[in-house]
């Protein structure tokens, strides 16, 4: 099983189309690193992206440098995965 | 192995083996109304099954519901299982559902992407695509919701095999998609298609590959509005609705566009709840409330199709 310890999901609220395209650029800058759970669609919709722990500082610096407001939707993915797995094991028991 | 569906926990997530075992028990216990159809095999040669709910007749007007085309969206498989159980539980009691099954058949494909789903349990919980591989291509998997013929290869899909929205080498290149196309085309009398995804609380209809409205967009808008209202009344979860390209983004080669272009006028795509915090990792405690609200929306759509034959 892949481990996602320290990976976070950031929720970004792009103000306009320009900021959306900055987010789309991120996929090119960090190929196969940034995983869009909710892709850049329109300014009225949030963009959720999973960022590996190793890339967090870079990505947050990029967002802040471009004035992209974000919040941390999931602080540590592995914590939720462990809870999910424990719930499945418990149900099986 | 689960011995009967009564010991099966509908409020938990399950592995592929547990789901396939449940399907066998479920069909055995409700053989008067449910049967299992093998529609093909996945890339890694796993069987692909569809549950058929029928009270008789031949090639009746039919409803198609699929879940799990994106493997990491576990809430969708769990919702499909719960809805299957709901149908047999309320048949004969719920007048609307009973009337629907008097005139129509319902087909539910619970694990539309078995290889990807097995992989989310064995290796990578966040895997989305199928597991196909081809000589010379060093990334694995095709996005099965970009591999359909309508608008194939257009905006909102990616030709890069390493992308999460890679559309594949050609339309219906993936066995998981080809199996559905073959089954629905051969049946020839589907009137509704509902493809269930997560997340972001949306109910959408074609087109995804174009901003042009479909011919019956007013009808679909009103029906989506009614369905979303029925959903909201269960647990107060708000959905937005509209055509895919105007509500979310342009996406090409998707299931509902193919269905619509094949003549299925009532084609919808659900993006189930995440209540704003969990994304694809919705806790199992939310399986049943999610399924309950989704059922009311689906029932609204099916009732409309029953009352508006074409």
What's a quick, concise take on this entry?
The complex is a heterodimer of chains A (93) and B (310). With 93 residues, chain A is of the alpha+beta class.
Would you write up a description of this structure?
The complex is a heterodimer of chains A (93) and B (310). With 93 residues, chain A is of the alpha+beta class. Chain A contains 3 helices and 4 strands. The longest helix of chain A is centred in the C-terminal third of the chain and has 16 residues, at 77-92. Chain A is elongated. Chain B has helices at residues 16-29, 74-90, 95-103, 114-122, 175-187, 217-235, 244-247, 255-261, 287-307; strands at residues 34-41, 47-53, 62-67, 105-109, 190-198, 202-205, 240-243, 266-272. At the A-B interface, strand 2 and helix 3 of A face loops of B.
Index terms:
heterodimer, A: 93 residues, alpha+beta, 3 helices, B: 310 residues, alpha/beta, eight-stranded mixed beta sheet, globular
Largest sheet of chain B: 8 strands, mixed
Low-confidence stretches of chain B: none
Global mean pLDDT of chain B: 97
Task: Estimate the helix proportion of chain B, in percent.
Answer: 25-40%
Shape of chain B: globular
Radius of gyration of chain B: 18 Å
Structural class by helix and strand composition of chain A: alpha+beta
Give a topology summary.
The complex is a heterodimer of chains A (93) and B (310).
Chain A: E1 8-13, H1 17-29, E2 35-38, E3 47-51, H2 56-65, E4 69-74, H3 77-92
Antiparallel strand pairs in A: 1-3, 1-4, 2-3
Chain B: H1 16-29, E1 34-41, E2 47-53, E3 62-67, H2 74-90, H3 95-103, E4 105-109, H4 114-122, H5 175-187, E5 190-198, E6 202-205, H6 217-235, E7 240-243, H7 244-247, H8 255-261, E8 266-272, H9 287-307
Parallel strand pairs in B: 3-4, 3-5, 5-8, 6-7
Antiparallel strand pairs in B: 1-2, 2-4, 6-8
Helix pairs in contact in B: 2-9, 3-9, 6-9
